[in-house]
Amino acid sequence: MSSSADNGQARNSKKKKKKGKVGKVFPMHPVIIQTGSDQEELLKRSGKGHKDLLETTHKRNSAANVITNYQMVKKGVDKFKNLKCGRRSRNGGSTVRGIDASISPDPLSANVANAELIGYFGHLATSTDPNISIDLEYLELILSRGADINCTDKYGQTALHEISRTWDPDVAVFMIERGSNVNQADLYGRTPLHVAAAVDFPEMIKVLLENGAYIESLTEKEMQSPLHYAARNDACESLRLLLKKGAQLHIRDYKGRTPLLLAAELDRSETSNVLLEMGARSYDVDRTGHTALQVMVTKMPAVAKEGLNQLYRCDRANRKQYYDLHLLEPLPLDSGIEVPARTVLQSIVLYNQLELIMHPVCRQLVEAKWEKFGRNGAFKQLAFNLLFILMWTVLACSLKSPFEYKFPEDIWRLILEVCGGLLTIYQIVLELKEFSDSKKKFIAWRNWRITEIEKDFKFCHPQWPQERQYLDQEVAEIKEQAPSYFADKWNLFDWLIYISLLIVTLLHVVDIFVDASGLSTATQNIFAIVIIFVWLRLMKSVRAFVRFGPFIVMLGLVASDFGTFLYLYGNFYIPYACAFWMTYGGNNGTIPSMQTVDQLMYSLFRITLVDEYDYDGMRQENVWMTYILLVTFLMISAILCINLLIAMLSNTFQRVYDNATAIAIMQQTKIILSIEDGLGKKTKRKYFDYIREFCSPQSLYYDDDMTSEGGDDLKKMTFQIKDSLEELDEFIREEQHLAHNGNISGLRAEIEDLKQKHEEGLKKVNNDLKVVQELLKAVLEQRSDRGGGGDGGIRTLPTLSTHGEPYSVPTGNQSSVPQVMMATGSPRFIGRRDTGTPKPSLLAEDSIDGGPIG
Fold this sequence. Notes:
Elements: H1 2-20, H2 38-43, H3 48-80, H4 112-126, H5 136-144, H6 159-166, H7 169-177, H8 192-198, H9 202-210, H10 226-232, H11 236-244, H12 259-265, H13 269-277, H14 292-299, H15 301-309, E1 312-315, E2 320-323, H16 344-350, H17 354-357, H18 360-397, H19 411-454, H20 465-480, H21 489-513, H22 517-536, H23 538-542, H24 549-584, H25 597-608, H26 615-621, H27 623-658, H28 660-677, H29 681-694, E3 698-701, H30 710-742, H31 744-785, H32 842-849
Antiparallel strand pairs: 1-2, 2-3
Helix pairs in contact: 3-31, 6-7, 6-8, 8-9, 8-10, 10-11, 10-12, 12-13, 12-14, 14-15, 14-16, 18-19, 18-22, 18-28, 19-20, 19-21, 21-22, 24-25, 24-27, 24-28, 26-27
């Protein structure tokens, strides 16, 4: 008795632990208690032993359910064996987290079955097992227990949202057939079609559309379609399929952004390129003045080139070519936009896109600006700068040491000095105004851009973390940017000139009132150096002309290379200068050209240039050190360093010369844009009127002999061939699929034959299982009626057999049972055994046997 009780307690504890786990729910048949049976009698009893006996009896009755459960599982397996229930295989993991395991807080959805359905898919979404699959029998069981197939998690996502993300389409069909709503949106307005489009799942998109999904469904307040989501997530296959199914190419969201503009803003170059190929307009403007073309210039220059191609058309038959220059210009001044977005040309200059500035459309726009106001503005700047330089040059050359003024003979000099000072102050005021305007414009643009990005924060889904991460990264990058005023090194050079001239002027004024010959000499020496840089400033105005632009850029790059060379040369020059000083300089030697530090350094420079130096005196001073120092220093400085400098300058020249035209146009464009910023409203209005009237589009003569570069044509042709092959491959696959479907009727007879054979075999197996079930019931009834056997333990039953042929269950009578015979041929009677002795109770029998059967 004690062992039986302990076993019962152990089974009870195990059973309680199993109930605490979250997992599959399997159907169990209820235990039916018949009137007048031993079960009813046992229910009336109490005590620990009676409870164990009741559990033992239930275990016996449950043994018959094993076969029934097996039949149900086998039936379910046969029903869903042709469905694919695995996870979708794809390269790289999705950044979308999927459904949340927490059920919606809505009281109407809060029931056990709904929680189990959402929890099951939440577990699948977080699983890292690549071979995991969905148990459709388990899903059907949950649904049969009352689960709402459209119940949601705390973000409003249904099970179909999770299935559309990463599971086989067969699972979606399974759910849709059982009432899943294909157009049900989550709290952010995203439907399963949005999810499938975002994760680039074209097979799932086909299933959803075939089952009534709305292809133009818009998200909540964000108003973005599935095409927007495919574009913003670089889902090229989904993009092509949606467009093929009739999705609107130029649909707009709450900001007026098209899918192309949204893809460009999120730096999705692949989908941007696909949209351009499909005919998306790169020049569409959103409500903030942004165009996709302007964004592509900053983030994807290669794709921007394709966008610029839309603004150029060629009519070979009529020898005409057309440039849509008006699409590159900003909105009119009365557009109502307080902070206008940057234009395409401004972005090209800001990011120094030499390849884009050479595009025919950009070159034509630069030419139009140059003709309307650029040329006149450039000549005015050149004339003003030249006057400024000449005025200071005359003053510098007319100075005397010490400074003396004799009036009225020197009145002209005083007038020049006053005019030069006023011009310098005027230039400084202009520079300060330019700096202030640049800073204000940049701060206004930065605040406006950050505000526009932050508007999208509220639409970022918690289960799609990559959306918020990218926007945060964009905001951080914008905050790190600085005004572009000092990005132009010429502005730094201007301030160097202004400060130098102010210092010279101040020293000159002091020298007039203070009689000091040394101060006059210092002022004159400083002025002599400053005047050199004043003349170099003339190149800033000359760079607007295409002929001189590349060479001015080359000089700037040469100065940079020369600075690098001086650092490398100084690493050798300084230690050798110390060695020469220790050997020949100061009190240690008698070489006249090395007695002082400045003489020594100049002599070393002459040795580098293989100029004259006192070789005989050095040899007389120290023979061995002369050979060692001279030979090594000549090899390092004259041979190695000088040739290295020549190589660096040659490389710079070649690099600039190869892009000479692009660099020249870029320099010209910078001057034009700076002139445009200083134009008055009236002048700007005239220019905009000209663009709208004569450049929308601009029609020019086309020379039929002109050809573009062969590389571009070959590249374009290669992409066209690739696209054609992909379309052909898809067409062949569809045709093969249709042909296969056409042969279905020919295979139907064979399938029916196989089905009939399968049903016959299954029927035979079921009959055999029923026989086994009846026999097992008979054994259990006989065991419960015979009272234990008297000797303790379970007696081994004789071998069972049937008279005649093997028994098969009749079709119309499922209750008929064969006459079971003993092995000896005598009938075997099932019921209580009359032994003539008092019958022991079932409780005593179980105590003797030591536990339940099985």
